[in-house]
Amino acid sequence: MNVPSQVLNPPCRTLLGAGPSNIHPRVQMAMAAPLVGHLDPYFQTIMDDTMALLRHLFRTENKLTFPISGTGSAGMEASFDNFLEPGDVAVIGVNGVFGERMVDNAQRTGATVVPVAAEWGDIIEPAAVEAALKAHKKVKLLALVHAETSTGILQPLGDMSKLAKEYECLLLVDTVTSLAGHEVAVDDWGIDICYAGTQKCLSCPPGLAPFTANEKALAVSQKRSHKAHSWYLDLSLLSSYWATGRVYHHTAPVTMVYALHEALALIAAEGLEARVKRHLRHGAALQSGLKAMGLVLHAREEYRASSLTSVRIPPGVDGGRVIQRLLKEFNIEISGGLGPLRGKIWRVGLMGHSSTGENVILLLNALEKLLLEEGYVVERGVGVTAAIRSLNA
Amino acid sequence: MNVPSQVLNPPCRTLLGAGPSNIHPRVQMAMAAPLVGHLDPYFQTIMDDTMALLRHLFRTENKLTFPISGTGSAGMEASFDNFLEPGDVAVIGVNGVFGERMVDNAQRTGATVVPVAAEWGDIIEPAAVEAALKAHKKVKLLALVHAETSTGILQPLGDMSKLAKEYECLLLVDTVTSLAGHEVAVDDWGIDICYAGTQKCLSCPPGLAPFTANEKALAVSQKRSHKAHSWYLDLSLLSSYWATGRVYHHTAPVTMVYALHEALALIAAEGLEARVKRHLRHGAALQSGLKAMGLVLHAREEYRASSLTSVRIPPGVDGGRVIQRLLKEFNIEISGGLGPLRGKIWRVGLMGHSSTGENVILLLNALEKLLLEEGYVVERGVGVTAAIRSLNA
């Protein structure tokens, strides 16, 4: 039987899309470390370490803090499937693809979902959430996306936290594109359930979903009238494996946990505050540069994420072609828009190891060159100059 | 904040447990290859290659053949959640932990489950399955475990395939511990849905679940009255990403796919027939050696897997202590029993890269030494001698 098969030889990309981001060589090497069994006493020390490092990153004391064995979307699914069941009501903010995905996930649990919508590029207004909480007698869960990867909006959570307390519902937050790049303080902010992905600001390959839930959330999940739909993501079983007893459930993805452990150790060494500042600095420089080039940033001004920037494709420019040319001619990956924003915006990630001043300049320079060639009128160098000024400010 | 964190430095184990198995250095290095985006044109060629190599391994023409982004258990969940819904009836063979897990998975879909039980260490009898199929009017799905990892039984599938045809139900087979170690012929054997794990005979780290389903199965899943419970494992969405259009669903675990691609290329290079023979030869040698030492093999004689051997712990010997000493003194991992077999058997895997004559001799020699020290009477060298005789036969 003839089986086509090439020799693995991936190109060296500068990953400035919506994720994955580039990974540190130490993370890369961690995956090549000797494989041990998932119940090996050595691996258990790595599990303990990883949980402690994740608690530090999530800024939580939650015992149940561990990586789910799937990508960020598996973290999302675990966060709905374990807490909602038919008869429950969930209020979900929807201002992008990931809010929509939350709705789909929540509906599959059989719960009633009340979406609170906003423009794709704007935040969810607390007043709209409160109206929804008021209108429905007993809302069990309020879910929001912290950094909406499809728009680059960073949702403020202070008022949402107060509302969740006032209306006695669980607060669930998606921090896939914010964790390790923006401030995330699970305990201080009153977040009951929180998940992320590894491939964004954590700078670890995709494949795991950091997850945390507090005692209040666990108590709610234990009061379910029947089992979660998912065996694979059943928190009571996962908790017995990760948190309380190392009881065999599934086979943990050992090498991915190695990689996450290494990525988290790098984050702890840099310091959370320094890391957030680094993301802010480079996000601001990129946004200055883009504006100086006459481009329009898509997300509402006061609420722009620094980990992900959305910028409108100027009229007359073929956005898809620019993405392809950046990849082919510069080995730089950026992303296009999703859903209603397809063909309308570009999305540039400056996440984790990819969030550097060099990458800001590299991208702005390449983009200027390509936009000029594609017929967009821009003074050569304005973007880079503005970015450098911002970096030096 | 003080964050405990050790430097990653795993010991070099000889992995002869129930999985993971040792991985080839080429697979190890593949994970350190440059990370690219999950929608990168380069990665799409690796996806295509991986699918072609998986089809070769599963011996199928099924278009929908790809790795699910989770461990083998996620493969199991996808195999039930996409095909069963409330009102459906599933007949499931249960002669070990993984049959039990199938029942749990199937029940969570809301379907009615009819378990067909057998002793843990015996096969499921076709007559018992036929009785169950007869007793229930319209059975939608018949599920069996090919190699039961908890007992070391290899289930013959010929009669089961005929029964599935006769009673017009889908045939679902778990090949987690058989694929790439035993003969698995999805199309020839009339298997409609099949999944495996990467960390057994494929010798790739845990984290992905090779999966295949034919057109008949897909048609059944498309006739569902409502969506699958799982968004993450929804075949209609996964199919759009992997098989039909590269439509973004979740972020594929890129480095794990690199590893799987490399592991599959190694399998294709060895040849399926040669690989199965290798597993048979080493499984037989191990079993000869264990018998020569006076130990009793647990699984029924004519139906023993070569990838996983279960052997009874002799009276008076502390089985757990032997496992711990093998790990501490010899860096060899073997597994204990699960469920009702806990404390009663050891399980020795000879899977993929771990299935070598050297490992057979290494283990038998270490086991003899330890058993003697633990008070079991055995003539020093009989096990190794019998194994060598078997290897040379």
Q: Can you offer a commentary on this structure?
A:
The structure is a homodimer of 393-residue chains. With 393 residues, chain A is α/β, with parallel strands linked by helices. The first copy, chain A, has helices at 25-30, 41-58, 72-81, 97-108, 126-135, 158-166, 215-222, 235-244, 254-270, 272-292, 319-330, 357-373, 382-392, and strands spanning 14-15, 64-68, 89-94, 112-117, 141-145, 147-148, 153-154, 170-174, 193-195, 209-213, 308-312, 332-333, 335-336, 345-349. In chain A, 41% of the residues lie in helices and 14% in strands. The termini of chain A are far apart. Chain A has a seven-stranded mixed β-sheet with strand order 2-10-9-8-5-3-4, with helices on both faces. The mean pLDDT of chain A is 97. The longest helix of chain A is centred in the last third of the chain and has 21 residues, at 272-292. The first copy, chain A, has 13 helices and 14 strands. Chain A has two domains: 31-269, Aspartate Aminotransferase, domain 2; 272-392, Alpha-Beta Complex (Aspartate Aminotransferase, domain 1), CATH 3.90.1150.10. Chains A and B meet through α1, α2, α3, α4 and α9 of A and α1, α2, α3, α4 and α9 of B.
